[in-house]
Every structure is written in structure tokens, then in C-alpha cells.
Amino acid sequence: MYLYLCYSILEVGNKEMKNKEEEQEKVSTEDKIKDAAKRVFQKKGFAATRTRDIAEEAGLNLSLLNYYFRSKEKLFELIVLETIFEFAKSLIIVLNDEDSSIIQKVEIVADRYIDFIKTQPDLPIFILSESRFNIGKVMENLPIKEFLSNSVLVRQLKEKAQRGEMREVNYVHFIMNVMGLIIFPFIAQPIIMGGTSMSSEEFIKMMEERKVLIPIWVEAMFKANKLQ
Amino acid sequence: MYLYLCYSILEVGNKEMKNKEEEQEKVSTEDKIKDAAKRVFQKKGFAATRTRDIAEEAGLNLSLLNYYFRSKEKLFELIVLETIFEFAKSLIIVLNDEDSSIIQKVEIVADRYIDFIKTQPDLPIFILSESRFNIGKVMENLPIKEFLSNSVLVRQLKEKAQRGEMREVNYVHFIMNVMGLIIFPFIAQPIIMGGTSMSSEEFIKMMEERKVLIPIWVEAMFKANKLQ
DNA sequence: ATTTGATTAAATCATTTGTTTAATTTAAAA
DNA sequence: TTTTAAATTAAACAAATGATTTAATCAAAT
To answer: How far is residue A1's CA from residue B128's CA, in Å, rounded to a whole number?
Structure first.
């Protein structure tokens, strides 16, 4: 199940090629429901979402939700899983790239995720808030720990520490810092905008600035760790 | 209304003194309900919370919720407001302290908030996730922008920039960075712990490390801004 | 003694919500 | 074309839920 998901999400782009001529835009009802469910769940969360909202969003009959997915819970779990994979996809690839330095990885991740979340601003808070209740079991079945500790990035961090270019700290600090610098502003966006009477355009502009600033900051944090 | 809340929350400690002798632990039912509501709302969010949950948590009759607070919505808005104030309280005081440097402020804030959130881990995600729907109007009525731009901290940041010790960037970046470095790990805690098979004790230990590390990192980020 | 307010249990009401059932349509297989 | 299985729909169900009310009880203040 999980492996299938990994596979189906990580492989990209061949669906469109196949369909390009004969079946234009023929989306299965199952996918229509999933897409609608993803939008509504991400926007309102599990508890505030009614199955009727999803059916309406999909323009389909309510019964079809139970026809294709047994229950609201099952559908939700699937959406959560897919969303996490979709989110982790870029990370997985970048973190294992042999040809980029640590800071280059930060540059790429900052650039991609800021663009990515710009298009789906509800995504981070959805994953993070719903993860308190459900994701526990999901995460346990995913080999994240092994993946991370065997990743190119973590190897690069260890090497950097061995060369004395930074103090050795748990690499989880590094991950939390980078992801926090990228994601936190989006989660706090309503409060930031409400508190500073900032417009959406100004906020986006600020996030564009951060694409450049975050790698600089992270680089500096390495040096701080070294000096101390 | 808001001013009253500010006042009643910012004033501290005289309640306990008054009660110390005669009325031991005499908590009004109104406060019992509010406390219970705060716990349940923060843990489960608005939509997933049933009024019966709150009544049960408070050990009180369901009718009393409507007796003291008109509706679930009213009660929730009150809880949100109080929670935000409770959270912002320390910040307000520290940011306007004339006697501490910027980095000292970061040290104090990191220390206090990490301790604070340790005792109420659901608090940040509660504020941030529920803020998408409701807080809009609440924030508009609060003079946060004026408070911030007139704060000692922002003045100190401007002075530091004028002395050439850092490049002048929007102070909102600074706020987001510091708060993100402190808060984000807590919000991502379920994912971090699930993904790294870290125990609660190890996580707390890591957050204790961050009390020391965050000020060092922030200091370094200033220098990076200067050099660039 | 009377009044006022606080509290409780119980019931009611109107909606909402997830799910199911049975009927109907569609599409593919024979 | 006929048959069969799958897809889709309308309708209904049963449980849950939030708000409100009523009547009764209790405590304290007047």
C-alpha cells in the first residue's frame, strides 16, 4: 500500500502523454472525489468538513463517496497520506542529490517550497494540525528515519563537522531550522497580516526575499556553530 | 471589551494573595467552564469539540454553558482571545524592555516560550490553525501594528542597522525567524518524533539545547546580513 | 420569610451528518 | 440484441449534536 503510493506519486508525467490524443480530460469520478476531498479537507480540516461539502465540490452524488471510499475516515487517511508524499517528494530528491552542496540544497528547497506553498497555502497547517491525531501510525510505517540518516545531506553535514567547519549538532536541528524558516511564515500568515496590516502582495514579496535570505542565514548559522 | 481583557490578563498575582486565607480554591463555575473549554478547544479544535465534552471536562451541567456564555461560538471566541493574550503577554513585556539588548531579548523569549509551550504543547497549533477562520476580525481590532513599530525592539533594530552592524531588512523577518525557530519544532513535533523515532524526553532535551542555540544563531544571522 | 440567583436533570426541537438502500441508468460482455 | 455488471442517483435512516426550555432544588442575601 505505502510502496504503491510512493511509486505512483514519484512517477510523473506519463499520464498526460498517454491521454494527449484520444481521451482529452477524461478524469475518473474516483479522482474527482479525491481532488475535491483534498481541497475541502485541506481548507477546513477533518472535523469541519462534511461529506456533503466534498460531494458538492466534486459536483457528484453524495453516495459515491461511500461507493468508492468506504467512509469519510478512509478517504481522509488517503488524502493525508497523498498530501504528505506530495509534500515530501521534492525534499526526498533534493536531499539525496550528490552534486549539490549543503547550501545549494537549502537554496533549492527554499525556492521550490516557497513557490509550492504559495500555490497551496493551506497545505502546511493541514499536515501539521491533522498530524496530531492521525499521522502517528502512518509515520511509523514509513522508513523516514532510515532514509534521513542515510541521506546525502546528513553525510555532508557530518563531513562538514569533521572538517571542523561547524560544531556537531544533531542534524534534526538543521532540518527544523530550514523548514521552520520556510514554512512558519506561511502558517503564521493570518496573524502576521492581521497584526501588521500587510497586504497579500506584500507578504508574497517578503517570501520572495526569503528565498535569497534563508540560505545566507543558514550559512551564517554554520559559522556561529563553528566559532562557539 | 478588548481593553478589559488586556487589563485583566496583564495584571497578575493579586487574586491568589486575596484568597490565600479565607476562600481556599474557590473557583467560580464560570472559570471552571472557561478552563475546561480552553483545554478541550486547544486539544481538539473548534469543530471537533462538542459542548458536552466541555461540560464533562468541567464536571458541570451542560445547561451552564448556555447559562454563562450564550453559545459555543461566543465561548470559543473568548477562549481564543484569552489564549492569544496569554501567549502575547510575555512578548509584549520583553519587547519593550529598555534595559536588555536585542540578543538578550531573544534569550529571554526563547527561554520563556520554550518552557511555556512545553507545558501547553497544543497552544501554538491551536492559535495558528484556528486563526485562519476566526481571528481576522479579532486581530484588526488590536493595535498590534502600532505596538510593534513603536516597540523598543524595533527601535533597537533600526539603530543597529544605522550603525552598520546589519543590513536593514524588514523587522517582520526578524520576528518570523525568532518565533519560527522557537515555535515550529513544537508544531512539527508529531512528525519529527514519528519520523525520527525520537522519544518525548529526547525531544524536550533538544528544545533545551535550542534555548542556548537560538540566540547564537540569531546573532550570526545579523552578521551575515552585515557582510552581504 | 421572601426573594433572588445558581445549579441540576430531563426533555424537546430542529439540524446536521455519515451511511445505507433500492431503484435507475450506463456501459460493456455475451 | 440480450444480458450482466458496474456506475450513478434519489431518498431515507438513524444517530448525534447544539441550543433551548422547563421544572425542581438549593443557597444565600434581603
So the answer is: 33
Query: Is B228 strand, coil or helix?
Result: coil
pLDDT digits over A131-172, tens only?
Answer: 887 666 667 677 778 888 899 999 999 999 999 888 878 899
B148: chain A residues, CB-CB within 8 Å: 195-196
Contacts of A91 in chain B (CB under 8 A): none
Most B-contacting residue of A176, A183, A192, A197 (CB-CB within 10 A), to test interface: A176
pLDDT tens-digit map of B146-169: 888 899 999 999 999 999 888 778
pTM of full prediction above 0.85: yes
Closest CB to A221 among B185, B194, B220: B220
Query: Please, what's the b/e burial string for B162-196 (b: 16 or more CB within 10 A of its CB; e: otherwise)?
Result: eeeebeebebbbbbbbbbbbbbbbbbbbbbbbbbb
Cβ A194 vs Cβ B140: under 8 Å:
yes
A207, A185 Cβ separation under 8 angstroms: yes
